[in-house]
Write a structure and sequence with these properties.
Blueprint: E1 2-8, H1 20-23, H2 28-41, E2 44-50, H3 54-67, E3 71-74, H4 83-89, E4 96-100, E5 122-125, H5 130-145
Parallel strand pairs: 1-2, 1-3, 3-4, 4-5
Helix pairs in contact: 2-5, 3-4
Protein name: 3-dehydroquinate dehydratase
Catalytic activity: 3-dehydroquinate = 3-dehydroshikimate + H2O
Family: Belongs to the type-II 3-dehydroquinase family.
Length: 150
Amino acid sequence: MTRVLVLNGPNLGRLGSREPDVYGSTTFADLAALCRDAGRRLDLSVDVRQTDDEAELIRWVHEAADERLPIVLNPAAFTHYSYGLRDALAQRTAPLVEVHISNPAAREEFRHTSVVAGVATGTIAGFGMMSYVLALQAVAELLAESPADS
């Protein structure tokens, strides 16, 4: 079973109470359970994490690169300005799927640019919590296409 990190940036720990008109009523705990369940169905071991700390998120990305782990990443606000995160992600050694609950292109202008998209395998956005399930499906497909060396 391949381990996958599902990493979440700032304010996503407040899902369920944060802007429910944009993000819905699903809590972060519900999202984590959804990801783990989807992972089991896809033969993936899903490790779901959230931080409001940019340095911690970068450390997790380094861990993934060192261990050759795929990443599903919702960088949240870091999407639009964190060149440190972008540079860490450029060191990836496995698939990286950027994910967003809402569609950033349909929101405020400052959300239209992702500094991490250029180093991601792909981006899935706008499907609510299902964006994570779709991202995990994409990771499973990418892994099936390119089996690990060994």
